[in-house]
Amino acid sequence: MMNAKNKQPKRGAVEAATLVVQAQPFSIAAEQFRTIRTNLRFTMVDKKVKSIVVTSANASSGKSFVAANLAATFAAENKKVLLVDADLRKPTVHRIFGIRNFNGLTTLLTEESIQLEHMVHYSLVSNLFVLPSGALPPNPAELLSSHRMDVLKAQMEEEYDLVIFDMPPILPVADAQIMAGKTDGTIFVIPQGGVSKEEGKKAKQLLEMVQANILGAVMNRVEPEKDSYYYYGEKTDPYMN
């Protein structure tokens, strides 16, 4: 168990190959993430967005890659950003940032005496903080739908300018649907050629059932030489989830 007296978050090492906005700030990829940030700003004009869910229809869509780079892009604007790995089934964020995953969100959900600040890690990106998933529980959906999760989310939104939740894909499990109903907005990651029309429609219906505010979709792994409409295209993602 982490020493509760240690109130300073720990620093992790960023994986340069995954956090392209930090390692290659002048690349096409980084520019596309800045475009996404700009587009999201327009959607936030009428309503202040403090929390965002990032999900996809199926696994292996690159949603964790998108969530991490989007969080770093917002942090570059001097916003205090918290990236939460709320994928309590197949977490990836701790690997992206090179931090241990012994404690994290599940610790906070199951032990009310533990404070949020004791579980949060610094990243090497200024203003970007990371909360890993922690140990994998037997009941992820129940934990995410709990009153304790509501309390934690409210605290996160109070202490940070923006909270981004990296969630599991929406079709296999209910976790993303649960959090999409609690947060201010949802971003849907679509890998080019990786989602059928029927799967996309079903995922959208599940989000609409909880009255999720769908901010938009990010098309992932698009060939830039073939298309110019994409938000972001990347052929290889070492931490696909």
Blueprint (SSEs and pairs):
Layout: H1 20-23, H2 28-43, E1 51-56, H3 63-75, E2 81-85, H4 93-97, H5 105-110, H6 116-119, E3 121-122, E4 128-131, H7 140-144, H8 147-159, E5 162-166, H9 175-180, E6 185-191, H10 197-209, E7 214-220
Parallel strand pairs: 1-5, 1-6, 2-4, 2-5, 6-7
Antiparallel strand pairs: 3-4
Helix pairs in contact: 2-3
Q: Detail the poorly predicted runs.
A: 1-17, 226-241
Helix content: 25-40%
Helix and strand sequence = HHEHEHHHEEHHEHEHE
Q: Ends: how far apart?
A: 28 Å
What is the general shape?
globular
Question: What structural class do you assign from the helix and strand content?
Answer: alpha/beta
Strand content: 5-15%
| Biggest sheet architecture | 7 strands, mixed
The DSSP helix count reads 10
Average of per-residue pLDDT values: 83
Determine Rg (CA atoms, Å): 17 Å
The main sheet orders its strands as: 3-4-2-5-1-6-7
Please provide the count of β strands: 7
**Quaternary structure state of the chains depicted:** single chain
Report what the structure shows.
The protein is α/β, with parallel strands linked by helices. 35% of the residues lie in helices and 15% in strands. The protein has ten helices and seven strands. It has helices spanning 20-23, 28-43, 63-75, 93-97, 105-110, 116-119, 140-144, 147-159, 175-180, 197-209; strands at 51-56, 81-85, 121-122, 128-131, 162-166, 185-191, 214-220. Strands 3-4-2-5-1-6-7 form a seven-stranded mixed sheet, sandwiched between helices. Helix 2 (28-43) packs across helix 3. The protein is globular, with a radius of gyration of 17 Å. It starts with 19 loop residues before the first helix and ends in a 21-residue tail after the last strand. The model is unreliable at 1-17 and 226-241 (pLDDT under 50).
